[in-house]
Amino acid sequence: MTKKQTIEEGSEFIPKFDDNGLITAIAQDAKTGQILMVAYMNRQALDLTIQTGYATYFSRARQKIWKKGQESGHLQKVEQILVDCDQDCLILKVNIEAGQCHVGYRSCFYRALKKNTDKKLVFIADKDYDPQKIYQ
Amino acid sequence: MTKKQTIEEGSEFIPKFDDNGLITAIAQDAKTGQILMVAYMNRQALDLTIQTGYATYFSRARQKIWKKGQESGHLQKVEQILVDCDQDCLILKVNIEAGQCHVGYRSCFYRALKKNTDKKLVFIADKDYDPQKIYQ
Fold this sequence. Notes:
- Two copies of one chain form a homodimer.
- The first copy, chain A, is of the alpha+beta class and 136 residues long.
- Chain A is built from three helices and eight strands, in the order αββαββββββα.
C-alpha cells in the first residue's frame, strides 16, 4: 500500500496534527446526532481523551489543555471516536447531561443564516442554562 | 454590546476567517444528521455557496475553489447554514444523492477507534460507490 492508501484504507490510527500540532475535533451528541461544538486537540489532549473517556481539548486562546466541563461541570462522556479519510479530523460521539456552549445553549450552533440573505442570522434554539450562574 | 457580545449574541453574520483566509465548514446530512465531511472555505467559496445553493469549498491541497461534486457529480444541495458562537466554524445542512467521500463511502468518517485501543481502527461502513468508476 502507498502511504496515501495506508492512511485512507488502512486500520492503523495515524492522526495528522497540523503545523500547530493540532487536530480538529467535532463533538456530536451520540443520541441525537446534533453537532455540539468544534474544538482542537494536541497529542496530549487526544491521549487524555482516550485514557479518561472524557473529551479533553487544547484551548488555542489559553494555550493549554482543557477538559471540557472542568469549570461548568458540563462534561462530555465519549462513546466513540471517528476519524476521516485523510485522518486530519475527528468526531467524538459524546453523551451529555447539560448545555455545551459557554453562551448557554445546548450546541454552539444556535444561529443560522437567514434564507436569501448573506449577512443576517436567525436564532434557532433557546438557551439551556444561564451561564452567569455557572461561570464565576 | 462589546465586540464579543456582537459576535456571540448578535444577529449579524460576521464569519471569522483564519490567518490563511479560511473557515472550517462541516457538511451534515440534513435528513439523517450524519456528518459527511469537513472542508474549508475562503470568502469567495462561501459567497458562491450562498449564491448558488451548492456547497463550494477551497481546496487547500490544490489551492483553488472547488465545487463539491464538480468531477464526481456528487453535489451537496445546501438547505441551511449554521454558525457557531465565535463565528469561526460553519455547518452546512445538505441534501445529497450519493456518497460524499472520494474513497467511496457516504461519509468521510467510515472508521472508528477500536474500544480500549489507541492505534487500531475498525471500519463502520460499507462503500456506497466505486470511486474508480467515478474519478478518471
